[in-house]
Amino acid sequence: MAQTIKIGIIGSGNIAGAHLKAYRLMDDVEIVGVADIIPGKADEFIARHELEGVKAFDDHNKLLELELDGVSICTPNVSHHSISVDSLRAGKHVLVEKPMAVTMEQAIEMVQTSKQTDKMLSIAFQPRYDPNMQMIRDIVRSGQLGNVYYVQTGGGRRRGMPKGTFISKQLAGAGALADIGCYSLDMVLNALGYPKPLTVSAMTSNHFGTNPHYHPQASAFEVEDFGMAMIRFEGDLVVNFKIGWAMHMDTLGPTLFLGTDAGLKVTPSGNGAWDGGITSVSLFHDILGHNTESAFPVKQHQINIFYEKIRDFVTAIQEGRPAPIPGSEIIRNQAIIDGILRSSELKREVDIFIPEL
Ligand SMILES: NC(=O)c1ccc[n+]([C@@H]2O[C@H](COP(=O)([O-])OP(=O)(O)OC[C@H]3O[C@@H](n4cnc5c(N)ncnc54)[C@H](O)[C@@H]3O)[C@@H](O)[C@H]2O)c1
Prior knowledge:
Elements: E1 5-10, H1 14-24, E2 29-35, H2 41-48, E3 55-57, H3 60-63, E4 70-73, H4 80-89, E5 93-96, H5 104-117, E6 121-123, H6 131-141, E7 148-156, H7 169-172, H8 176-191, E8 197-205, E9 226-233, E10 237-244, E11 255-259, E12 262-268, E13 278-287, E14 290-296, H9 305-319, H10 327-346, E15 350-351
Parallel strand pairs: 1-2, 1-4, 2-3, 4-5, 5-6, 7-10
Antiparallel strand pairs: 7-11, 8-9, 8-15, 9-10, 11-12, 12-13, 13-14
Helix pairs in contact: 1-9, 4-5, 5-10, 6-8, 8-10
The structure holds nicotinamide-adenine-dinucleotide.
């Protein structure tokens, strides 16, 4: 029987329920405490989920005084940084919800603290556990495509703008970029082995969020609902990326990888492949001078990718493995989002600088 892992949950809103649900399916996990900054909210969460013997706190630092192996950080984006740093310093492994942070300074301190404390900092990108996403990653990493020099990715919802903390600049940092753009970038960058971004030229807008016709909280809408960027990477790779919460269009097209030996076309089932919803994966290649298209079998699966994300975190703690989705890698994703926002504000191409950590 594997070692029982003691977990605390910080933030007891929407996504905390999904973390709890996954942990509760595991015989080798004990939920020890829940913290939420709103007094009484953690107690209410504990009561609602009938969590016997679980302690409630309105300050995460009090929770961190408990004997815990790890924490799930399920708070709004703005506090991912401070709570991760406090948790790592308290000797706990961290699974923090996406996006990693709000600023690059925050992301840097998170990675540094993880190194200093030798505790895991894992970012909660569950699409990584989708079998079709894993197939795409394996195809790209196999070298079948040759040297990949161009990628286009992203997508957009026809209408799909969240409310509340997600549209507050101060609490979320960014809008569609931080909410779904980070997944979309992770999909292609993980497949490519997270190349180093060098520069970005980008534009963002919020034509829908600030229009009361399209958003009930238009007067409070402070973030972008659309962003597009041309991102240059080491190795003469360019990524054409776009993401939107709303648009007058059904799709922004497939994700494409163009390589010197073959191209890969990933057609999303919905309006973007960031969540793993895929209808087809096709390889375009040359066989004996013939332009050939080969279809990979798209898997119809019942895998609960959210559960798999949490399970991998727990197993990594038990086995003393590195973070399954390390902050030291996702800092490149964060740096791109940071660069997109800077470039859009300055209306020109900007450098992306990530210090050696
Ligand atoms: N992985 C996914 O599929 C997924 C889906 C939705 C949201 N998220 C991410 O999860 C995070 C939370 O989103 P949500 O929808 O659950 O938001 P939410 O507003 O429903 O819940 C956040 C909770 O955190 C609490 N909180 C705020 N600051 C706190 C602090 N300093 N200490 C303790 N508690 C604090 C709030 O009171 C609230 O109860 C966001 O970063 C979001 O991007 C991830």
